[in-house]
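Repro case for the chain-ordering regression, as requested:
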Amino acid sequence: MTEGAVREGALAGSAKLAEGTRVGVETAREEARPGPAGRPAVGAALQPTLAELSRPGRGGGKVPHPPDDALAGIPGSALRRSPLALPELNEPEVVRHFVNLSHLNYSVDSGFYPLCSCTMKFNPKINEWAARLSGFATLHPLAPDSLAQGTLELMHELQDALAEISGMTAVTLQPAAGAQGELTGILMIRAYHAARDDGQRDEVIVPDSSHGTNPATASMAGFRTVTVPSAADGGVDLEALKAALGPRTAAVMLTNPSTLGLFERRIVELLEAVHEAGALAYMDGANMNAVLGRFRPGEAGFDVMHFNLHKTFSTPHGGGGPGAGPVACNARLAPFLPAPLVVRDADAGFRLERPGERPSAIGRVRAFQGNVGVLVRAFAYIRAHGASGLREISDDAVLAANYLRMRVGEGYELPYPGPCKHEFVASGRSLRQATGVRTLDVAKRLIDHGFHPPTIYFPLIVDECLLIEPTETESVETLDLFAEAMLAIAREAREDPDRVKAAPSTAPVRRLDEASAARKPELRWRPMTGAETPCPS
Amino acid sequence: MAYGPHTTDDRGRMLAALGIASVDVLFEDIPAGLRASRLDLPPAMPELELAGRLQDLAARNRTDLASFLGAGVYHHYVPPVVDQMLLRGEFYTAYTPYQPEISQGTLQTIFEYQSLLAELTGLDVVSASHYDGATATAEAALMAVRATRRERVLVSRAIHRHYLDVTSTYFAGGRLVLEELPSLPDGTTDLAALEAALAEADRPVAGVLLGQPNAFGLLEPMAEAARLAHAAGALFIAVVEPVSLAVLATPADYGADIAAGEGQPLGIAAQYGGPYLGILATTSTLMRQIPGRLVGETRDLDGRRAFVMTLRAREQDIRRDKAASNICTNQALCALAATVYLATIGPHGLRDVASLGAAHARRLESALAAVGAPRLHTAPYLNEFAVRVPDAETVHARLLERGVLAGLPLARWYPDDHELRDALLVCATEVTTAGDIEAFAAALTGVLA
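-- result from build under test --
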């Protein structure tokens, strides 16, 4: 098939959809007419709170009643003084409440979610099943190693797989999230310098395009943050970095591919400069979905990195968490990894490291062994793919991003030259100049087209920024639908800007008053009075 | 690829549209010397085989023993409705609710979680969640440091060892000082030592941190400790277990400024360590010091009630190096589990759960005392306590051979404490049966014989 034919086919398909969009825009009663995704983004009916649904006397029947003297051993001064005013509901009402609330949510299971750098890919259902297998789910975290051989083997195999994928020597699975992985890595770097009597290093360098967690992590670990600018091509400015490096630099934190979706072309020179200054290189691995099997950070000279299993390895985002942020490092930093790691003894199977077994360990960053349920899911995902499958994930993610970039570029500026990796930056700057419609408005209007908006106004260095990540699990038809929606909104901004500014109009609520929410915060429902009835005997 | 949609034809269309022959072209920005060779990983498994492997691994864990192990993680009855709500894709495959117009489900459940935990703790401001009880405790200690602009935190020795470890890791970065307070022979924190430590005029204290119940399962004199802390201008931090708050005095009752704790007992499975739920709560006074996401009530343009993430100026994506914490991803789905659990179990149910645990623990105490394993401490307890057996580590191993997981040998947490060499920390909850207790007592009789 020729390129022209392919292009024509794609356009013919999307033209039909664009027509639908225009009809939608011109219809006054828009609420009744969903966008080209063929359905409204989410359900419509707002719900009362549990407190409002509560009726004294409802519910019960879940556990037996205790004997009357159950609390006889507790001194009165230690007992609760206020009534326990929790809501009282029967189970059917609980179910309806949460099912109806769920309908108000957009999710990967309901549609395209091009948010980045979040990698909102499909969350495989076998992973959910696996994590709930009783052997995994009910295992106590302090169970002796002999009772935990299945989970320990899984964790050991996952440590090895992540080491192989990253090109690093050793891996801890303990950090609960990406930001905690960052803290872990930076505290390891602090311990490394201290162990070499090089403790005057009190600065961490981050590029101006970095995730906010990078500078926040540096502060938490007791470092001063030094920000270096990006070069015109979106990469780190090598000369600016060299100027910032010095005897006080402990570490440089780089995201690669960067938050602009670009591979750091000067990575060799950058890492050479970092190491020449005696500093270590941390890689924020949030964007690993772009380079599985294509680039191994350890081989390139990064000293330590974290993975986001909830991005690259398909574990669900859960409405904000839980995730998991394993940290991989090279031999130089391995002694400092938090304890305990999972180790394999020649004859006795798998076990956790014993207290004090690795004296340079920085200590724990979390109780117990980490978000193990998340690890089970990531393990299943890696085993489902194998080496070639993982590489195909990144190949497809990058191909989809470049394709969508080209399509969105028909109506929006693309501030950086391609190719991009798994995500790309577009800008609504000229659209705003021409029409007054801001990127925020474009994002909100996408909701009326049935899509979750992409990340907006990040990275901070791009004006009217849109950061779009399609992932490898969206079909080319979906990518076309999304591109057509973006282009339709750009057209609409010129024809009827107020319509765009008023979006969303098909969601259960319109734009919210965020300013008064912050000025006079209401963070809980009013205390429920009289909700508690005497205990039914 | 297992879950991808692209046919050869689809890829061809996209490549052609881009005017390139191969996807390799898109990776030419990686310097030639750094392009990875093939990964050395086991081959892809078809789902049928993968399911078998996972079942095999799960089956190699042993979870069938009569267990008296708690030590921060407790087995409870979880009504199936909890997991069925958690399995709704609209909840678990959603992201952080940055677009409130299409995230009211997540936002309202977080608001309800905050409200329910506010009711349990008596404190009005509850964060949308932290990673676990240990990191919530570390964040509470850091909050006290920020709020008082002091650098010294006093922690009871009878605090969960992992919580102490994590807090001390979090303190490694700065000039912050963490000091342990000794405990008395009855197992509670030595308040005279607390008073002395607070009296050091040149070393002002930011916060005082005690567990209720403490790491030995014992009830601490919280009101008195809070009074001492406040008299010295320090904040008082309570590390609490949420089910116990159905019957025990709330942090607000005894004047705590901050409460931290592990929310796992509220409907979350043990899972060998997580994901769990870090609870962090505080007073309205300290609202702007609390790290982590917060959801507040507001209105939309048409006046409809709605919920939105708020006080965002504390967070890392806005404040960067000046943020209250680096936390971003949290444990939102675990907070949902706690919300569904509390809505289902209700106030009477939660009190019954806490009371049944206490009743079963008293039965366990009698049964163990009767076979030669008396309690180690004399302070009152709720549902967990230490018993004395000679050489606890060996006894624990022998009981394991007899199908009993006899709690935690406390020497693992306090290796230098001679007194605790002979101590097992055991617990009971509403799921502990009379049969379990009889089996424990019988096995112990055999081991001690």
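Ordering looks correct now. Chain A touches chain B through 218 residues (CB under 8 Å).
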